[in-house]
Design goal:
This protein is mainly α. The chain is built from 7 helices and no strands. The protein has helices spanning about 10-20, 25-45, 50-70, 75-95, 100-110, 115-130, 130-160.
Length: about 160
């Protein structure tokens, strides 16, 4: 807007057009999130079992996340709950000793929650000199990271899952 010197009427029209767009199908989004997390588990050395467990755990976790978001839950509590669900499902690979690399499923299944956008934007804002915005985004990213850690830790502690590799 600033660079192209767009007039307010054009901007309003475009924003209204964007607001009318239909969101992606939530089942498709959940499937693709599961596929992305599963692909990453494969890239970090997981086997086929790890890939399948990660896919199931992260897909279900994304569905839970969507439901909590739909009901306007706090984003930090949503991160705790989603991480707990993903970790609980992925922990089955460790509990049932399905594969020697089962711990990879736990770490890969929560990657859908990583606040990469917040942290990258925080760094960019700080570099550009927008300190308050950058620090705010950085703190939000840090709190989301803490929420993920709390969700994982709660489930690992409750299920007494060994996460050493």
């Amino acid at each position: 807007i600033e660079r192209d010197h767009l007039d307010p009427a054009h901007v309003r029209t475009e924003l209204e057009r964007i607001a009318r767009l239909q969101p992606y199908n939530r089942w498709f989004v959940a499937f693709m999130v599961g596929a992305a997390c599963a692909a990453l588990s494969w890239l970090v050395g997981g086997d086929l079992t790890v890939l399948l467990v990660t896919f199931i755990a992260s897909t279900v976790a994304q569905i839970v996340r969507q439901q909590l978001h739909r009901h306007h839950f706090n984003q930090f509590l949503t991160a705790v709950a989603t991480a707990a669900v993903a970790t609980g499902i992925a922990s089955t690979a460790v509990i049932w000793d399905l594969t020697p690399r089962a711990q990879v499923a736990i770490s890969s299944s929560v990657l859908l929650l990583v606040p990469g956008v917040h942290l990258i934007n925080a760094a960019e804002d700080i570099i550009k000199g927008h300190m308050l915005t950058g620090l705010t985004r950085g703190v939000i990213g840090a709190i989301i990271t803490l929420a993920i850690a709390i969700g994982i830790t709660l489930v690992i502690g409750l299920l007494q899952v060994s996460v050493t590799m």
